[in-house]
Amino acid sequence: MNSLRLLPRRIFAFVARDFRLFVSYRMQFFLRIILILAVVTTLFFISKIFAGFTDPQFSQWRDPLASWLTGLAVLNYFMTGFSSLANSIRQEQMQGTLESVLLTPINLPTVIVSSSAWDFLETTFFSFLYLFFGRVFFGVEYQGSFFLAVVFLLLTTVVLACLGILSASFAMVFKRGDPFGIFLGAGSALFSGVFFPTQLLKTYAGPNLGNISLILPTTHGLQGIRQVLIEGHGLAEVTQPLFILLGFLVVLLPFSLWVFGRAVRRAKREGSLIQY
Amino acid sequence: MSAISIRNLSKTYPVSFRRLRAFFRRPVKDPVEALRDVSFEVETGEIFGLIGRNGAGKTTLTKIVATLVQPTTGSVSVNGHDSVEQDELVRREIGLSTAEERSFYWRLTAEQNLMFFARLHGLSDSRAKQRIKDLFAKLELDEVAKRRFGELSTGNKQRLAVARAMLPSPPVLLLDEPTRSLDPLAAARMREMIRSFSGEDPPVTVLLTSHNLAEVETLCARVAIISRGSIRALDTPKNLRALTSDSEMVHITAAGTNGTFKTSFTRQHNDDRLDEVIKDLQSQGARIIDVETERATLLDVLERYEATDEHG
Q1: Phi (first) and psi of residue B189, to 5 degrees
Q2: Local structure of residue B81 (DSSP, 8 states)
Q3: Is the ipTM of this complex over 0.85?
Q4: Are A228 and A145 in contact (CB under 8 A)?
Q5: Residue B230: which of B33, B29, B4 has the closest Cα?
Q6: Is residue B188's pLDDT more than 70?
Q7: What CA–CA distance (Å, rounded) separates B120 from B109?
Q8: What sign does the dihedral A230-A233-A237-A242 (CA atoms) show?
Q9: Residue B15 burial (C-beta neighbours within 10 Å; 0-12, 13-18, 19+)
Q10: Which of A6, A99, A265 shows the shortest C-beta gap to B68?
Q11: Which of B12, B18, B68 to probe by mutation at the A interface, max A CB count within 10 Å?
C-alpha cells in the first residue's frame, strides 16, 4: 500500500533523473528531430510515385504517406512499450547502478515501470513529430476519434509491455540474446503492415508466412489505429482488433508477471542481479 | 532485540544451467560456497567489525543483509524484519556504502544524484534538500555539490557514497571500507563521525567491513574474523589479540654511564616484570629514556587463522 502511494513520487524521480541525463546530450535531441523530418520528407516523395496507383481494396492505403506516418509513429511507440522495460534493467546493470537503486525500499517491478517512464514521454514526443510534420508540411489529413486511437495505442502498448516483461526476465537470467527482441523487433516491421498492407504477404509469400502477422499484437494495434485515424471508423467498427488485443492482454499479463517473479528470484539466488 | 541477527547463514552460489551444460558435455564448474553456517548478532548502537581477506565472504554477507542476495539456508533479520520475506522493510532500516564508483550516475551532479536516491526513499523534496545540505556540510562536500559525479576525486566519491547511505537516516549502516580512498585527515574525520553514531538518538548500528585493521581495532566494540566463508573468531579486539598471544615484547631505551643502550624482554599481560626491570635498571644508575611495547595486532590474529586454514 505504501509502495503504491509512493509510486508517483518514484516515477517522478526517474523521469527527473532521465530528463537531466537527456539534456546533458542536447545535440542528440536536435539531430533526432532533423532525422525525423528527413524521413517524413523522403516518404512524401516516395508516396508521390504511388499517387493514383493504389489498389482500391486497400482502403487504409489510399494515401500511402498517411499510412506510413501512422505506421512509423505507432511502431516507434510499440517498440518502446516492448523494449524499454528490458532496456531499463540492462542499462542499470551495465552502468552498475541497479544495485544502488535496489537498495532503496523499492521493488523491482516499480523500478522497471518507473525507469521506462521517461522512454514513453520521449517516444510520445518523437512519435507525435511524425504526425505533426506530415500534417504541417505535407498536408496529411487525419480523421476519426483521436480518443479511440489513443485507446488502441495504450492497449497495444500494454500488451507489448507484457512481452517486454518477458524480455526483461530473459535479460535478468541470460543477460544477452533475447529471442523476444529479435522476434518482435525484426518481425513487426515486416509482418505488421507498417510499410505495406499485410494482405500482400499472403498473396506473395503464401498463407503460412502471411498468417504470422495475425499472431503479432502490433498488426491488430496498427489496424485499429488506421481504421480510426485514416478510415474514420467508430467503436462499433473496430471491435475485432479491440477484442483480439484484450485477449492478448488477458493471457500475457499474468503469465509475464509470473515469469518475471521467477527470474528475479533466480537472479537473487545466483547473486547475478547486477551482472551483465 | 538485536539490530542485526544472523542465524546459521550459508550461501552457495549455484552454477547456472549446470544440467544443461553437463548434457552438452560442456565443462561444469563446482558451485561456490561463499558462506558456511555463519551466526552472530549485532546489538543496537554497536559498531561491529568484519575482517577477512579478499574472497573470505564479507561482501556476500553484507549483500545478504542488504537483501541483494538470497541466502541458501539460514536467516538474517534487521530490527526484527526477515531479509527475504520482508526485504522492503529491511531496506527501510539500512544504508549501504560501498567503494563501488559505478553505483552513481556519472553525468549527474553530486546533488542531483543524492536527490534521485532521496526521492526513491520517499523523502519530500524540501526534506531531501535539507538533508542533502546537512550531509554535504557534515562530510565536507559543499564545494563539489554542483559538480558532476564523474569529475569528483576518488575521495569525494567515497564520501558521497557514505552520504547516500546516511540519506534516509537509517538505524543500521553497512559500511564497506568507508575510509579507503580518503586522505589521512579526512579518514580521521570519517572515523570520528562513525564513532559518534552510537551516541545518536536513536543510536545507529554499524556493520563495518574494512581491510584497515587499525581502524577496526579503534572503532569496533566487537570484531568477527571471517575466513573461507566461516566466522573463525568473534570477540572484542582486546580479547582477539589475547587469543594469539597473551604476552608482549617490551623494548626499553636507557642511558647509563657508558652511554645509551637498549634492552628487550617478553612479559605476560599485567605481570610485574616491567616494574622489576625498570627498578633493576634504575638501581644500576641508568635513566629510562623510552619504553615501547609490541603487542599482537588483529593482523597477527588474522594471519594465524589464515595459516590454520591453509595448512588444514
Answers
A1: -65, -40
A2: E
A3: no
A4: yes
A5: B33
A6: yes
A7: 17
A8: positive
A9: middle
A10: A99
A11: B68
The DSSP code sequence of B260-274 is EEEEEEEEETT-SHH
How many Å apart are CA A152 and CA A51, to the nearest integer? Answer: 29
Provide the pLDDT for residue B93: 94
User: Count of A–B CB contacts within 8 Å?
Assistant: 85
Cβ-Cβ contacts under 8 Å for B282 (sequence gap 6 or more): B288
- Across A52-56, A209-213, B1-5, B299-303, which has the greatest mean pLDDT? B1-5
Asked whether the whole model's pTM tops 0.95, one would answer no
> CA-CA-CA-CA torsion for B128, B130, B136, B139, nearest 10 degrees?
-100
Contacts of B66 (CB under 8 A, 6+ apart): A103, B90, B91, B94, B96, B174
pLDDT digits (tens, 9 = 90+) for B30-79: 778 889 999 999 999 999 999 988 888 898 999 999 998 889 999 999 99
B chain contacts of residue A271, beta-carbon cutoff 8 Å = 11, 13, 60, 63, 68-69
Q: Which of B96, B100, B122 sits opposite A6 (nearest CB)?
A: B122
Q: Does B278 touch chain A (CB under 8 A)?
A: no
What are B7's three cell numbers? Answer: 542465524
Looking at residue A72, its amino acid is: L
DSSP sequence for B22-33:
HHTT---PPPEE
Cα distances (Å, whole numbers) of residue A245 to A79, A81, A216, A217, A240? 16, 14, 10, 6, 9
Please give the Cα distance from B105 to B97 (Å, whole number): 15
In this complex, is the C-beta atom of A100 within 8 Å of any C-beta atom belonging to chain B? yes
**Interchain pair A16, B119: CB under 8 A:** yes
Q: What angle do helix axes A117-138 and A108-115 make, rounded to 10 degrees?
A: 20
Pairing of strands B32-42, B172-176: unpaired
DSSP symbol at B201: S
Residue among A16, A105, A269 whose CB faces B70 most closely: A269
Q: Judging by beta carbons within 10 Å of its beta carbon (0-12, 13-18, 19+), is residue A104 exposed, middle or buried?
A: buried
Residues 148-177 of A with CB under 8 A from B: 173
Q: Which residue of A has its CA nearest to B97?
A: A100
Query: Parallel, antiparallel, or unpaired: how do β-strands B81-82 and B247-256 relate?
Result: unpaired
Q: How far apart are CA A122 and CA A115, in angstroms?
A: 12
Distance (Å, whole) CA A201 – CA A213: 9
Mean of the per-residue pLDDT values of chain B: 88
Q: Closest CB to B108: pick one of A20, A265, A272.
A: A20
Question: Would you say B155 and B139 are in contact if contact means Cβ atoms under 8 Å apart?
Answer: no
Q: Where are the alpha helices (DSSP H) in B66-153?
A: 87-93, 110-120, 125-138
Q: Which residue type, as a one-letter code, is found at position B7?
A: R
E strands, chain B, where? 4-13, 32-42, 47-51, 73-78, 81-82, 94-97, 172-176, 205-209, 222-227, 230-235, 247-256, 259-268, 287-294
Bridge partners of B264? Answer: B251
Going B128 to B131 to B135 to B141, the CA torsion angle's sign is: positive
Cβ proximity of B268 and B246 under 8 Å: yes
Q: Tell me if B13 and A270 make a contact (CB, 8 A cut-off).
A: yes
